[in-house]
Amino acid sequence: MSSALPTQIDLAGDLAGALPQAPLGQVPMSQVIISFAEGLIELPTFGELEAFYQQDKIAAILQQVLQYFETHQDTTEIPSQLGEFIFQKTVELEIYVTEPVEARAINLDARGKDYATNILSYASELPEAVLELLPALPLGELVICHAVVVSQAPEQGKTVEQHLTHLLVHGMLHLLGFDHELGQAEQDEMEAIEIAVLDKLSVANPYE
To answer: What pTM was estimated for this model as a whole?
Structure first.
């Protein structure tokens, strides 16, 4: 997915040059790679948009998600095969921020739905044998349409920051194999995790 998308600006995390393995059983370090569509980069308001996608902010969100699973290892299983390696390696996440025209095309191609959606998740599908050999664990890629996020936030009584944080947590869970569309039990579990993680990030329950 990543190679097919324009990546005019890449913001690699501080760990880009060194990817040590995390001590077994501890929350792993994370590397966040952020890129933007060319059409966004050319906007006079790009600086304001870019401020929402700072590495330290997104890395902190990812760390809270990982912390949840470290704390709840005995009660919550990560559905994806990534769960086998999640506490052994540095975790890598890609973020691609785009605009409505491209977001609509991506959503149509990926899901057959002809509209721009807020976020799409593309989980890593590498074989387990390959994941075992990699120095960092690729979670996959989140594709975000910032304009949709901005338009939805006031409709839901949230700030853009709050709505984006919720969507990022939601998307990260999808990358780890959680899927609320499988049934009510899966939806309830996913929402409970989101609420718990968001509470740690000082974001109110988005489902109330």
So the answer is: 0.86
Q: Each residue of 17-59: pLDDT tens digit? A: 333 344 444 556 789 999 999 999 999 999 999 999 999 999 9
Nearest residue to 94 (alpha-carbon basis) of 32, 167, 29, 22: 32
The answer to whether 13 and 30 are in contact (CB under 8 A) is yes
Q: pLDDT, tens digit, for every residue of 118-142? A: 999 999 888 888 988 998 899 999 9
Which CATH number characterizes residue 60's domain?
Answer: 3.40.390.30
Residue 185 lies in a domain: yes
Three-state SS string over 121-182 comes to: EEECCCCHHHHHHCCEEEEEEEEEEHHHHHHHHHHCCCCHHHHHHHHHHHHHHHHCCCCHHH
Instruction: Classify residue 205: in a domain, yes or no.
Output: no
